[in-house]
Amino acid sequence: MQLRRQPLSAPRPGDTRPAAQRLAVPLLLLLALQGAAASGEPEDSGWLQDAEPSSRLLSQAARAALHFFNFRAASPSALQVLANVLDGRAWVNQKKEYKFDLVFTTEFYRAEEGEKRLGTCSAQVFFRNDKPRPAVNVTCTQLIKKERRQEEDYQLYKLMKQLKSPLNAVRIPDSHGYIAPSLRPIWNLAFLGSSYVMWQKTTPFLHYFMSQISSVKQWKTNDDAIDFDYTVLLHEFSTQEIIPCRIHLVWYPGKPLKVKYHCQERQTPEEGSGTEEGSAVALTELSNF
Amino acid sequence: MQSSPGGGVVRKWSPVGRRTLLVCSFILAAALGQMNFTGDQVLRILAKNEKQLSLLRDLEGLKPQKVDFWRGPARPSLPVDMRVPFSELKDIKAYLESHGLAYNIMIKDIQVLLDEEREAMAKSRRLERSTSSFSYSSYHTLEEIYTWIDNFVTEHSDIVSKLQIGHSFENRSILVLKFSTGGSRRPAIWIDSGIHSREWITHATGIWIARKIVSEYGKDRIVTDVLNAMDVFLEIVSNPDGFAYTHSMNRLWRKNKSSRPGTFCIGVDLNRNWKSGFGGNGSNNNPCSETYHGPSPQSEPEVAAVVDFIMSHGNVKALISIHSYSQMLMYPYGHSLEPVSNQEELYHLAKDAVQALYEVHGIEYIYGSISTTLYVASGITVDWAYDSGIKYSFSFELRDTGRYGFLLPAVQIIPTAQETWMAVRTIMEHTLHHPY
């Protein structure tokens, strides 16, 4: 079994490798596993590298890492989205655990038209079987200086404190994709909370996008923190299902985000894979309130 | 609630069936000059337990009636929506607060909302008389699109005609635009959009492309050459029932609206209902699933109509099916990882098309076969088309890559259509120059 570092071509358009060679990870690796015994890398015994990981698979892993990053940064003014995967390696072992090593670029989520500032992240993502909540180790270059980010968070926070209860605006964005400027901070904060949920739910085969805030149950700004209770519609890509999730978060600039959630599923929820294992990831902040 | 082309009501705000119905009755009452709702509010209360629920029920029982429930007290986990007349607001709020009942103001002033809604409905009834006042940078309702189609055909009757190829499950017309400069059963290019109703950018792109084709004929060499030798068929709303539903009730509805006795859930994924690899991986036999393939291939009238049309035409040389989102251009197969026989050719054509797209606004698409680029999906349009002998079968996934997803802001309609057109034009040109 060849172990080969497979650099991706420079950012698109398209892909220089003929599609026939770009087989999905599971198929290729299952074939490899059925074949000869594992060659055994010195540090990770049993890991078989996918020689040609599909860009889709790598993007999914990168997004999972970014959901985790955004959640931990807890900064609604500094949310980042995936731009391009520059380099990625994927491994699986006989225990059906998946491991990814990625380098990718990111953009600001709140980018105004034309503002194209790219950051770079490197991440290791680990899934135990096809369980959700991968263990993530991610480092990103600073897109904006810490002081500026804190200042922008604080400005956002002040805006939110002044906001009259946004309960009249039931859906954000509306059907035409429009978000009123006054509701933008709500959208960003909702995305922050959803990032936590999406990280929790991502598996090697299920990945999520936030479609719409379908209702705002509660928006409280007494005390100091913003207390936000809302329902969001997540779009799971491989099944095309829309999953409503009730999310309740508490946010104060500079403090870790507190989130509770409950999603309406057709399947039973799975145990996470990110509570133990390999990477230097501290446990998330789950508090009762 | 059904709406048929040429009639029906446009709803401006968010669909909650019962609330909309109630608002309609209010409008009726207000119109008859009987009632004024200025200052009335709708409060949403979340009762924490049975005790709180019964407190709310007490309010319901008051005589004379002080409140009016739009969503009555049922269970502790369900919100209770209560209309409170302006005169009773102070008392009712005091009552709620003194009993520790948490509430939010859902509607601050019902009359304001009614006035806005009435204005919107009146506006929608002023039917557009020509396509020049039609906004290509907005999303439209089914009625508006069907009206536009009629106007468009009238204005360009030398090249464009309208065909009805069948009826949807809820009996809506399925319409196709035919672009032709003459001849008889010329080799043809088929384009469809809107097979998944929530992908609104696709209908909008289809409409823009229709206009682009007629405006470029006689000006752009490729379009002129194509239309002088071939016909183009464009099905803008491939799933009219689903599309109407995304306006009336559920913006994120994907499937059609077919139902069967004994089946609890509604709708079949029209892009899993085709006769190629039907029922395989990447489709679902659970009717409640978003990728439910239906009871049998072509069981859905929306799919059968297209199959019948293309088969009886017999001379379709390229098929382009437009979806969103992901920014991808793909060719068969979806149901298998096996490459198609002209895979090399399709790969290079996709590459050229994506390059042409990129040059418009710098948007990056990835390309490849469906199964390797997007996911394994069975019973899809382009697989069927390819297996039916249509060598140039492509599937688009338009903008974006997930930031807005299905709810792509209207401001992106024209840029998306402009770039997509350049890719479509590339495929058309190749098809023209590679007859078979």
UniProtKB/TrEMBL annotation, chain A:
Q: Does the keyword Repressor apply?
A: no
Q: Entry's InterPro entries?
A: CYSTATIN_LXN, Cystatin_sf, Latexin, TIG1
The record's SUPFAM superfamilies line, in alphabetical order, gives: Cystatin/monellin
Which interval of the chain is the signal sequence?
A: 1-38
Q: Which family does it belong to?
A: Belongs to the protease inhibitor I47 (latexin) family.
Q: Which GO terms describe its biological process?
A: negative regulation of cell population proliferation
Keywords attached to this Swiss-Prot or TrEMBL record, sorted alphabetically, are: Protease inhibitor, Repeat, Signal
A single GO molecular-function term is: metalloendopeptidase inhibitor activity
Q: State the organism named in the record.
A: Ovis ammon polii
Q: What is the lineage of its organism?
A: Eukaryota, Metazoa, Chordata, Craniata, Vertebrata
Q: Could you name the Gene Ontology cellular component terms for this entry?
A: extracellular space
Q: Where is the Cystatin LXN-type domain?
A: 47-148, 168-271
The protein here is known as Cystatin LXN-type domain-containing protein
Q: Name one Pfam family in it.
A: LXN
Automatic annotation (TrEMBL), chain B:
Biological process terms from the Gene Ontology for this record are: proteolysis
Q: For this protein, what reaction is catalysed?
A: Release of a C-terminal amino acid, but little or no action with -Asp, -Glu, -Arg, -Lys or -Pro; leukotriene C4 + H2O = leukotriene F4 + glycine
Enzyme class, broadest EC rank: hydrolase
Required co-factor?
Answer: Zn(2+)
Q: Where in the cell is it found?
A: Secreted
Molecular functions (GO terms): metallocarboxypeptidase activity; zinc ion binding
Active-site residues per Swiss-Prot or TrEMBL entry: 397 (proton donor/acceptor)
Give the E.C. number(s).
3.4.17.1
Keywords associated with the record: Carboxypeptidase, Disulfide bond, Hydrolase, Metal-binding, Metalloprotease, Protease, Secreted, Signal, Zinc
Q: Which Gene3D superfamilies match?
A: Metallocarboxypeptidase-like, Zn peptidases
Q: Briefly, what is this protein's role?
A: Carboxypeptidase that catalyzes the release of a C-terminal amino acid, but has little or no action with -Asp, -Glu, -Arg, -Lys or -Pro. Catalyzes the conversion of leukotriene C4 to leukotriene F4 via the hydrolysis of an amide bond.
Xref: PANTHER family: CARBOXYPEPTIDASE A5, PROTEASE FAMILY M14 CARBOXYPEPTIDASE A,B
Q: How does it assemble?
A: Monomer. May form a complex with proelastase 2.
Family statement: Belongs to the peptidase M14 family.
Name it: Carboxypeptidase A1
